[in-house]
């Protein structure tokens, strides 16, 4: 059995964050499981699998059936592209978290629309990775580090040029009838000096209710319940302020 992911959860107690439990995602023979334990581990090698109370994760809740009108990523591209796979670490935490297949399919639908209307500031989508008739990942051209990492590594950033590129990409999304709903520095990657928008699992049609996933605390307005263009505009403005503040430090 293979440990795929592990994460420590904390709760607030008397104003302090206190360790609650460790959650582990495991895989064996193509089947996934999760377990929680009150033990802490320095690494996956320290985990005693025999003592974990395993709960099965049905694969149909992770990987949706592949619609035949979607794009099947070329086999040759799988070796060199970035493949976005569902993270299972929050599976079972909420009712919505057990419907990851819906989240993956929704993002694939957005990417299919973007594929026919490409833009240099939008990640280039290559198609779905398909195994046994199900979507197991979304394939994109591989870019550099995200904007947050780029800035923290000390790269010189043309703030005006960067913000213009992000705005151009967002405008393209809006013109196609979509709102990204999660504009933040970790969802912008760098292609040389040019920003490229990624991560469309929060993306919705303009005016639609929010989906299973929406926004990032501190970067997204918390007073919205539907996909409105001003949510993205506000996210871009927050990135601009962050870049200016970081440059002054």
TrEMBL record:
Highest rank taxon of the organism: Eukaryota
InterPro entries recorded: Kinase-like_dom_sf, Prot_kinase_dom
Claim: rRNA processing is one of the keywords in the record: no
Record's keyword annotation contains Kinase: yes
Protein kinase domain mapped to chain residues: 8-249
Gene3D superfamilies named among the record's database cross-references: Transferase(Phosphotransferase) domain 1
GO-annotated molecular function: ATP binding; protein kinase activity
Pfam families the record matches: Pkinase (PF00069)
Endpoints of the signal sequence: none
UniProt keyword list: Kinase, Transferase
UniProt name for this protein: Similar to serine/threonine-protein kinase
